[in-house]
Amino acid sequence: MKVTAPSRFTLNFPTQYGPFTASCYRDLAPSWVDRIYNLALNGYYDSNYFMRVINTSSLQITQFGTSGDPSISELYNWNSTELSGCGVIEPQPSEMKYMNKFSNTFGTLSMSTSFNDDTQTTWNATAELFINTGNNSRLDAMLFVPVCTIDSVGMENILKFPKYVTFSTVEYSLNSNPASTVLES
């Protein structure tokens, strides 16, 4: 799990709504892109489910990254691992290069993290990713790191996913589509 990713690589995700391809760029956030690369290389994203599809006026994302194998998923669960364990990597420094290149806008794939409202900092990253299906640029200041772009045909397919249902103020996904990852250099 410590292989350095190539400077650019692609991930292919077949879904029941059609495939999408993510082109990832290591120079944007090296330790986070290395994490995605290693997880994909080791089959972590095989048999994944899209657990959250949100389309509100304030947030438009499709989120995934919980392994289909619960024993593997547990290794990357920040609730069950030490902060120094493999489940969590430290955030990138706030002067990340990505801020000048990418934003959390339509067609980008970002590393999901935990954001501390009290300190206004992003403090960890595990294995979850989200696809921006709208303009979520306000997430940039919170260091939700966009590290890949999704091809246009793939974005058309992603937009076919069923959206959430709202119960009270909690958003739930009705979507549970498996995704497998094939790595190409």
From TrEMBL:
<dbReference type="InterPro" id="IPR029000">
    <property type="entry name" value="Cyclophilin-like_dom_sf"/>
</dbReference>
<feature type="domain" description="PPIase cyclophilin-type">
    <location>
        <begin position="12"/>
        <end position="147"/>
    </location>
</feature>
<dbReference type="GO" id="GO:0003755">
    <property type="term" value="F:peptidyl-prolyl cis-trans isomerase activity"/>
</dbReference>
<dbReference type="InterPro" id="IPR002130">
    <property type="entry name" value="Cyclophilin-type_PPIase_dom"/>
</dbReference>
<dbReference type="Pfam" id="PF00160">
    <property type="entry name" value="Pro_isomerase"/>
</dbReference>
<protein>
    <recommendedName>
        <fullName>PPIase cyclophilin-type domain-containing protein</fullName>
    </recommendedName>
</protein>
